[in-house]
Amino acid sequence: MGWWSDVLADAIQKSNEIEIVSCFTRSNDKKAAFADKYGCKQAASYEEILADPSIEGVINTTPNHVHVETTREAAEAGKHIFLDKPIANSIADGKEIARIQKDSGVVIAIGYQRRRENQFQWVKKEINEGRFGKLVQAEANISRDREGQFDLSSWRYTAEGMPGGVMLQIGIHYVDVLEFLMGPVKAVSARTAQLVLPGDNPDVANLLMEHENGAQSILSASYASASEYYLMNIYGKESTAYFDLFEGLRCLRRGEKKPEKVSFEKNDTIREELEEFASCIRNGGEPEVGPMRATESLAVIMAGIKSAAEGRRVEIAEIMDAK
């Protein structure tokens, strides 16, 4: 368990669909603090959790590189698994998790909560109902200030633990949203830089993505900006949607002079994705983001990493087909 475990647990506490039964992490102090905060048992080992018949599913917030091992152990014990993104640090591991899901029949859901945000749900509905016409272009930015907040002892801030740095850690959220809205990505051209932060990972990344439908999108991700910022603009032949952190959502229709403000309610996306996980366990059905969708999203980032390193356009098929 790390800091994100508390974010997920806070969302669970707001829900009537999930109860935290037990927790385990190697740090006894962390484990005791979590158990006290959320009123659950402290397990002596991961194996103890997996052997507990009262537990239906595991919320797994281990580092990316051990997702396969910890997922396999849970699936073999008949436990369903919720993994935070990214699914893994390699396509091979992502495909292995997909195989584990298929062979075991357990539910495996991957945490991509940003696609659930109501502004993107509104845009998706408009696209599906034909009001955007042909999709042609998109631009997105996801930025945070991490200066002075970097812990180089954490796996999250090393090239081994988080390949591609900011691109994999936060950029992948908006890769998922762009594919959700614009369709699958076919190829990527990318550039990265390390400008402000220490360590061995880029803190600025830019991806030019070619979608299968012919549209193009540009994604910028940064850990070196002055503040937190989010932007997503979707351009269609008949409508354009503009969203940013400070101005909210606006829509400009073909022939109109200025965009119209679109009201939406801010929703608890983390609670929603966890309740979907619970519903799939109890009622059947597939989570919106399962292992293969998460692996395809990871492939876009891996293509970006390869493109930046080799200075060339990289197709997603090359990444997905690599041995």
Under CATH at level 1, the class of the largest domain stands as Alpha Beta
Give, in order, the helices and strands. Answer: HEHEHEHEHEHEHEEEEEEEHHEH
Q: Indicate the mean pLDDT.
A: 94
User: How many structural units, i.e. domains?
Assistant: 2
Largest sheet: 9 strands, mixed
Low-confidence stretches: none
Strand content: 25-35%
Measured distance between first and last alpha carbons: 32 Å
CATH architecture of the largest domain: 2-Layer Sandwich
Which geometry do the CA atoms define?
globular
* Rg, alpha carbons: 20 Å
By DSSP, the count of extended strands is 14
Q: Helices and strands: which structural class?
A: alpha/beta
Lateral arrangement of strands in the main beta sheet? 13-12-11-10-6-9-8-7-14
Total number of helical segments? 10
Provide the CATH topology of the largest domain.
Answer: Dihydrodipicolinate Reductase, domain 2
Describe what you observe in this structure.
This protein is of the alpha/beta class and 323 residues long. The protein folds into two domains: 3-113, Rossmann fold (3-Layer(aba) Sandwich); 118-265, Dihydrodipicolinate Reductase, domain 2, CATH 3.30.360. Helices cover 37% and strands 25% of the residues. It contains ten helices and 14 strands. The protein has helices spanning 3-13, 28-38, 46-51, 67-76, 91-104, 118-128, 166-182, 269-283, 291-310, 316-321; strands spanning 22-23, 41-42, 57-60, 80-84, 108-111, 135-145, 185-193, 204-211, 216-222, 224-236, 239-244, 248-253, 260-262, 314-315. It has a nine-stranded mixed sheet. Strands 3-4-5 form a three-stranded parallel sheet, sandwiched between helices. Strand 12 (248-253) and strand 13 (260-262) form a beta hairpin. Helix 4 (67-76) runs parallel beside helix 5 (91-104), helix 5 (91-104) runs antiparallel to helix 9 and helix 7 crosses helix 9 (291-310). The longest helix is centred in the C-terminal third of the chain and has 20 residues, at 291-310. It starts with a helix and ends with a helix. The mean pLDDT is 94.
